[in-house]
Amino acid sequence: MTDDDTKADAPSTDASGESLATVLIALAANALIAIAKSVAAWLTGSASMLAEAAHSWADTGNEVLLVIAERRSARPADRRHPFGYGKDAYVWSMFAAFGLFTVGAVVSIQHGISELVDPEPASDYVIAYVVLGISFVLEGVSFTRALRQARGDARRRRVGTLSHVVSSSNPTLRAVFAEDAAALVGLVIAFTGVLLHQVTGSPVPDAIGSILVGVVLAIVAVVLIARNRAFLIGEAVDDAVRDEVLGRLLALPDIDRVTQLHLEYVGPGRVLLIAAVDLAGDEPERHVAEELRRLERAIARDDHVGAAVLTLSAPDEEALTPTL
Predict the structure, then answer these.
(1) Are 268 and 9 in contact (CB under 8 A)?
(2) What pTM did the predictor assign?
């Protein structure tokens, strides 16, 4: 029931495949980065590097959860789940966000505080710089992939890229985009901490860098948790999407008026549509029921619609009009 304004959230095979590819690229990149950072942290004793290693391991685990989210949410509807399994994407994405908070943010902040209280000497700075540089390149590749997908989707919706990432019903794209952006910021912070440690000889900047990395991860995790929670408890579509769906309903030759319209996300790019409509003509009750069921089936054939439920409008109900 939508056009280019909402195709960015469409659950088509191509869109789902693109999101899965984005997650798999991020998974491969973060796994390699986590191993490299862990070795570098062990060799250098850098607090910032250890924080970055924890961050990358958290991201790697998160990508595994996001792959599960993509797979499980794509299962077709059945008798026990008539609206499908789309919200499974938000459940597993929520797990990933909690993992980012506990494994990434808490460990980084805790280790930074520990280094301030009982600092350990650092060495082999060259190794740290090399690993940070390689990590920046790999994270950049993953982030570029997520950014390209987000920009394409935002362009089709005619909204800003960041606005699309925040508001999109696609939790895997949002998670990869946010985590990779946080990773790039964290790498800059870690580089600064290691450099100041080398220049000043004091472990304080390195420890503070570890704490700052943890704070960045905590902020990202809280935002991701909040967005997944919103979709889990039932988030309605925005006015632009509602107006588009209303226009499509009114364009059907069998519908004269729409007096009630409820659209709620039941998964990435899929909505539950409930509407009260006034049918054209004055058919007998049996024919009206058959016509409603036919219209429901026709509307539900759209990939954006998880389920459609139509009822009749009362004569005194006011007709809906677009808000924008």
Answers:
(1) yes
(2) 0.76
